[in-house]
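Hello again, I could really use a second opinion on something today. I've been staring at a protein lately and its backbone has me curious. You're getting the sequence in one-letter code plus the fold written as tokens. I'd be grateful if you could look everything over and explain what you see. No rush at all, and the record is pasted right below:
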Amino acid sequence: MSTFELAAVLAALASVTAVSAHGMMSSVVAGGKIYPGYEVGFSYSASHPPVVGWDTPGNKDTGFINPGNFSGPNIICHNDATPAALSVPVAAGGTVELQWTTWPETHHGPVIDYLANCNGECSSTDKTQLKFNKIDEQGLISWDSRPGSWASDKLIAAGNKWTVTVPKSVAPGNYVLRHEIIALHSAHNADGAQNYPQCVNLKVTGSGTDTLSSGTLGIELYTPEGSGIIVNIYNKLTSYTVPGPKLYSGASSGTGPTTVTAASSGVTTSTVGDYGATPTGDASSTAVVAPIAATPVPRGIYTNSTSALPGKPSKSTQKPCTSTRSGFMTSTTATATPTSTASVEPTLPSTEPTAPTESTKATPSGDDADIESRQKLPKDMTMKELFEWLDLIVAELKKKMDGKMRRHARAFMDM
């Protein structure tokens, strides 16, 4: 096969295996207490325990929202999101720690937090009417080498955790905290940025007076061509503009100016609570979930790495996500570094890989033999035949993955 053909094969197979590469917000810590969030496994059950994280049944693959969908409702709190039943109690001026299951080291980009007043119970709020105020942002921290140090890298270094401060000026009431990572590894192409919004309900107490009556609707936060959405992070950056509206005037965390220079150190992400300690005290309201017991929040079925355990540093054992749009692939061990905004092909071996000998090759049987017969690649294969073959392989891989997901879901519901 030619280099182009082999690149097409690798890109197609990588796009299938990338399903498990991303994470999601699994729990929240406030006042030293742990509150469980939504889990992917809930999508396979008719009901699930009430949690503080919004339901996202359409996010079974822990995937992303692309810029082409910025004007649709899924950008607000992710795919098919519906309000959480419970809320996290936090005082204005206090901190909320957001724990992710995992995050890929290759997915560099900003971390952004917004707050919107529910104007009533958050459990029944209309997400399309929420007006968001940006209360925290951080993008490019420093540039020593490609692709630089980003807020997402700080989140990973903190054990896949991010801490945000609720502004002291916020009035008591019910609010939605919209927490988001934007991955920029493919953002040098149009529609290449990847947004991962997560939402959680907060019940704010204190003496603040600002009800956040104004703000920006979720579907108006970003535009596909907006600042910070299309950017080549593999070229040296002297500055980076965090996407979205300007920072809320009463914010007590964030980088300050919208444009963050490469020399800026940004905010320092602190931590609260202790995941290994037994939570104490009771919830202050029936609308607020009681903290979970002494053991850490379960990782669920959506991660295959112990690095997702709260409080432990990430070792990023997951497969990296790759983009067929970009024309090149990234890896946790070797990162492609294009020298211009044009896409480049991956570096490939100059020779054909050596096929296994008959003495070392395992003899397939049954369904495996049938699959293998469709995986053989004739050297004189045409491009049309190549893509027909790819369709078969992708279909087989998806069928196997769907079977595994169903088995994991049944195991989860039996726990």
About this structure: Residues 186 and 192 are 5 Å apart (CA to CA). Confidence is low (pLDDT under 50) at residues 3-20, 255-376. Helices lie at 3-17, 74-77, 151-157, 366-373, 383-414. The longest strand covers residues 194-205.
